[in-house]
Amino acid sequence: MATGIKHVDTGAVLEKAEMEGTALHEIVADLDVNTHKIINVVDPAAAQDAATKNSIDTHAASTATHGATGAIVGTTNTQTLTNKTLTSPKVTVVIEHHTALDTLTTAESGSVHTNLGATADLCLTLPQDAVAGTNFKFAVMAAYQLQVDPGAAGAIYINGAKQLDDKYIWADDEAESVELVCDGNGDWISVGAVGIWTVEV
After folding, report:
1. pTM for the whole structure
2. Domain limits, the chain
3. Which one of 22, 140, 167, 175 has the largest count of C-beta atoms within 10 Å of its C-beta?
4. 37/41 Cα distance (integer angstroms)
5. Is residue 8 within 8 Å of residue 29, measured between CB atoms?
6. Averaged over 7-14, what is the pLDDT?
7. Torsions phi, psi of 171, nearest 5?
8. Is the pLDDT confidence value at 82 over 60?
9. Longest dimension (CA), the chain
């Protein structure tokens, strides 16, 4: 069976039997395959192994596509960006409507919480393990008290002062809202309040 390799001197196509058992194990110049394919190649393992189509396709399917200017497009995977400028980023905000008391988690940071559908007052407790920058937005969408509790070891800075630990704030008029950000010490800062938010007495 022919190998598809020509003898460099005679031009004859070498047979497989002619290749086996010889000392032709080293390429000492550029290899020109003359528009033919190299087939049955295993996927690379070492740093200097040649890439295969399969290895490239697999990598492309699991990572972002990097353009000439460093653009990242076409990926839903988590990416770490350093010194990148985001042009027209798409940000999805999670909104949760509560009808009963609940304790939020740090994994929900950046989300919006309402009392839409509630038929009574309800209290939402902020996470006790929050790190600096953890933030939540709260919006009244039903005419019942939406209470936000900082937890036993925390307090909320609102209405021009730091309130007492474990004292919730509340509002009950539709469209009233507040955004709270953790300061990293167990307390929460109001960085934007709409309407009247009253402190528990």
Report:
1. 0.60
2. 2-60, 95-199
3. 140
4. 10
5. no
6. 63
7. -145, 155
8. yes
9. 100
Contact predicate 165/155, CB 8 Å = yes
| Distance in angstroms (rounded) separating the CA atoms of residues 50 and 91 | 39
For residue 25, the Cα-to-chain-centroid distance in whole angstroms is 48
Q: Give the count of beta carbons closer than 10 Å to the beta carbon of residue 174.
A: 17
- Other C-beta atoms lying within 10 Å of the C-beta of residue 178: 24
Look at residues 140, 97, 145, 103 and name the one whose alpha carbon lies nearest to residue 120: 145
Average pLDDT value for the chain: 84
Q: Which residues pair with 188 in a beta bridge?
A: 156, 182
Query: What's 95-199's CATH class?
Result: mainly beta
Amino acid of residue 52: T
Q: What is the 3-state secondary structure (H, E, C) of 40-55?
A: CCCCCCCCCCCCCHHH
CA distance 47 to 155: 54
